[in-house]
Amino acid sequence: MNATNDIPVYANYIGGAWVAAAGGATVPSVNPANRSVVGVVPASTRADLDRAVEAANEARRAWRKLTGAQRGTLLFKAADLMERRLDEIGETMTREMGKTFAEAKGETARGVAILRYYAGEGMRKTGDVIPATDAEALLYTTRAPLGVVGAITPWNFPVAIPIWKLAPALIYGNCVVWKPATDTAVTAAKVMECFHEAGFPAGTIQMVVGGGREIGQGMAEHPGIHGITFTGSNAVGKQVGAAAFARGAKYQLEMGGKNPIVVAADADLDLAVEATISGGLRSTGQKCTATSRVIVVKDAYDAFRAKLLDKIATLKVGDGMQPDTWLGPCANESQYDTVLSYIRQGVEEGAQLVFGGTKPTDEALKDGFYVTPAVFEGVTSRMKIAQEEIFGPVLALLRAESLEEAIELANDVDYGLSASLYTKNIGQALAFVQEIDAGLVRVNAETAGVELQAPFGGMKQSSSHSREQGQAAIEFYTSVKTVFLKP
Ligand SMILES: NC(=O)C1=CN([C@@H]2O[C@H](COP(=O)(O)OP(=O)(O)OC[C@H]3O[C@@H](n4cnc5c(N)ncnc54)[C@H](OP(=O)(O)O)[C@@H]3O)[C@@H](O)[C@H]2O)C=CC1
Ligand SMILES: O=C(O)CCC(=O)C(=O)O
């Protein structure tokens, strides 16, 4: 990192060294709370990507030859380094994408835990012994790394998502080329510094910062990259998947959600309100697992609505670095415009905006991408605000005649990432688990909140049907070899 006029300048990380983009171009990373510049980051080109892919391919044979335990030692070191820099990395995240400092520190701590989890995976079994038809033969499975993995990551979880891709890729013997979201490239550089200081061999992991079309698409098309893991929008994910498929590379896509919370007539309404607010509005609604549709069975509707509106009115919107802020700004201007445009569309479609959805009047917030949390009611399933991922602090209330109808409404979208039910009835809970189209089903818990040791991924259009995290990650980052061995 260098500094020009006190604004820090960051570089790519290729072949174990920090290097500026070959063309020298840079872009500012902007604080969404006030539009100040947090740092200047590279605007790389395909020449930079080629260098990174070459470095990874040069390193990969030596890296795969290490034992899992040796690779794990380095991941443990990176975890310790990141833990020591928790506050600094958390603050950078808040300044780059707006989530509150408490949430940002929590996410960084989660990154540390993920690193330690996968460091331990280096000591666990990677195959099975299977009875062979020949009594003298040994029939078993083992796993081979893919080679070079390309990771394309978004800005909404700038530490946790990259780490839940990088850590399993590395522990199972792959080298990595990582393209972080440009919006959070300063946070990414700090994560990368932890890997650098941990002493990973040169070429094991590279970070190339640049635009999605240039570097992201370039990675999907690059013959030197053997597997691509992506988290982001559906439109881009499908392009990435198509490009990888066209050249026979493995790919994994985690994309959007339109996640419902269903409130049954017998639900504990205080808990359901808390879960709706936390699941829907934390991180300013910018989680793929965020609650976006609130489907309430009619007998509970009025009481739930009243409690929800009371509670939402207490949430303080502001700069995520202020200790009393509950809801930070949208992460960038384009996201802000998208959210405001969905709020306008909701009104035009005939839903009633019963709370928020406006720019705050506080003079101190005038330069930031702030919007007050919005609640719509009278929403029907065909409306855009009930179908499309908004990725902002917008809740759509739908009223259902029965739990059966609530589940039908919950399933009436193209997505299937996460879903939650509030009920005290075990029978209803089991029926929900069985009927709901979602990769992550939560009963009496909010829609967001992923456990790092469990598989995570969606059904329908939310993913490429693969799973990340936990032991499930091994399925993407390795290929199974079936071995028949006879003396
Ligand atoms: N599932 C999730 O967790 C996320 C969902 N989203 C959804 O996507 C919407 C738009 O957000 P946005 O940031 O634009 O999401 P994108 O899908 O555009 O960005 C995600 C990542 O993909 C990169 N990228 C962008 N274009 C391409 C491309 N053509 N080929 C390969 N990679 C590319 C981005 O790079 P760069 O940023 O440098 O352009 C970033 O690293 C949000 O409103 C939300 O609905 C967004 C983020 C996360
Ligand atoms: O809910 C979470 O903790 C993770 C959400 C997530 O993966 C995402 O928003 O991309």
Description:
It contains 15 helices and 23 strands. With 487 residues, it is an alpha/beta fold. It has 2 domains: 277 residues, Aldehyde Dehydrogenase, Chain A, domain 1; 193 residues, Aldehyde Dehydrogenase, Chain A, domain 2. The strands form 7 sheets. Strands 16-17-18-15-14-20-21 form a 7-stranded mixed beta sheet, sandwiched between helices. It has a 5-stranded parallel beta sheet with strand order 11-10-9-12-13, sandwiched between helices. A 3-stranded antiparallel beta sheet has the order 7-8-23. A hairpin with a 2-residue loop joins strand 1 and strand 2. It is globular and about 70 Å long. The structure holds NADPH dihydro-nicotinamide-adenine-dinucleotide phosphate and 2-oxoglutaric acid. The site of 2-oxoglutaric acid (AKG) has 10 residues, from loops. GO terms for molecular function: oxidoreductase activity, acting on the aldehyde or oxo group of donors, NAD or NADP as acceptor. It comes from Paenibacillus antri. Keywords: Oxidoreductase. Belongs to the aldehyde dehydrogenase family.
